[in-house]
Amino acid sequence: MSLSEDARAKFIEHAKNENAKKMFTELGEDGGDDETKAKAQKTDGMTKDSVELDTKARKYLSEHADEFKGLSESEAYHKAVYAVSKEA
Question: pTM of the prediction?
């Protein structure tokens, strides 16, 4: 959600490439060795807790879509993160 529309479109276009599909599938199936799995738990500042918060926020967004009408994706996401973080 943090990518611009242009960057998101380019990423999606790249992800549709057969080689990229194969790579994503292989990574998803295997997960790599223990060191790779450990790095996956914390990459680019994303900890297990922040991934869980992101998941909860996205679920909240989908369940309360009416609350976010008229807001940009970014505004809606930030409000959802705030809402679920207050629940904890």
Answer: 0.48
CA distance 56 to 81: 8
80 burial (CB, 10 Å; 0-12 / 13-18 / 19+) is buried
Helix or strand (DSSP H, E) at 69: none
- Are residues 47 and 40 in contact, defined by beta-carbon separation less than 8 angstroms? no
Whether 81 contacts 58, CB under 8 Å: no
Structure tokens at 32: 């790599």
pLDDT tens by residue, 46-68: 677 888 888 899 999 999 999 99
Q: CA 54 to CA 49: how far, in whole Å?
A: 9
